[in-house]
Amino acid sequence: MQSFMKQLLSGSSRHTGWLAAVVTVCIWTAFIVIARASARHALLPLDITWARIMGASVILLPWCWWSVHKQRQTDPSIGSFGGFSPLPWRLTVVTGFFGGLCYALLVYSGFFFAPAAHGSVLMPGSLPLWTSLLAVYLLGERLHGLRLLSLAMIVGGDLLVGGSSLLHAFEGGTVWIGDLLFIAGSLSWSTYSVLSRRYQLQPVPATMAITCFAFFTFMPAYAVLCMTGVLDTHLLSAPWTEVLWHAVFQGGGSVVLSGISFTLMIRAYGPVRSTMITSLVPGLSALGAVLLLDEPLSWQVMLGLSLVTLGIVFGVQRVRPAPLKATA
């Protein structure tokens, strides 16, 4: 069992990429469905961010401190942030900002302004587009015709899934603010995805690092702003069961489990193909809302899910180089 887990986390298992993709898609889908079901939280968006970071920190920070201090017996230069991050300072700050703090603040604030249906389209649906563009710029990847076709299918399918709600996004009110926050959150996570591939980050150390940065930057600032009355908080008045639920699911599930599985998926498939796989989330979350929340199943959802699935089938295929022609 220990040998299997070691192979799994190192990415050497043959089934690692497939298993990581299943775990990531399931957790992301559950996140969207839960957000739809909990349209009126007792907690504010920054309160949920606090619960998310606290839940992940309780699990990862003691584990990381023990691991880093054990390694420092042979190499004192390993780690940063007092041994609570296994990565160097600069890499911890960069990945922690985009993959931990910035993403959480943007996404949870977006749900405060816009409905969850917008988030299900604009967050995972736009990931392949942002990741492809960033991979071209940072990794030097090239977009061939087949991948461009798959991107067009995925974007078109996601727009069909949530098109009815997005059509009214800019008619007034504050919905457009939430939409922009969702798009910015997607861009932030795409940046982390490409950086993870560029620096060949291991899944567990990467998740530890982004949690460490979020804990040591957000927690003190949030406490000071709440104590001085600058920010409002419902942490003390909300039911403790709701706070605990968000800490377990948002921290333990969305950060720890899906963070590790997503990084494993990047190691197996690359950032572009990984975000194409996560484009299943909008359609699956819509189907989950039909089964669990009694939402109507429209032809747009069925057609959109079909387009996304076809786009993934085309996008995840590796393009084989054309055989060299024999010369005289």
| Radius of gyration, whole Å | 20 Å
Main beta sheet:
none
| Overall form | globular
Q: Indicate how many domains the architecture comprises.
A: 1
> Can you tell me the residue ranges where pLDDT is under 50 for at least 5 consecutive residues?
1-5, 319-328
Gap from first CA to last CA: 57 Å
Total number of β-strand segments? 0
Q: What share of residues are in beta strands?
A: under 5%
Q: From N to C, what is the helix and strand string?
A: HHHHHHHHHHHHH
Helix-strand makeup class: mainly alpha
Question: What is the residue-mean pLDDT, rounded to a whole number?
Answer: 79
Total helical segments: 13
What share of the residues lie within helices? over 70%
Descriptive keywords:
328 residues; mainly alpha; 13 helices; disordered N terminus
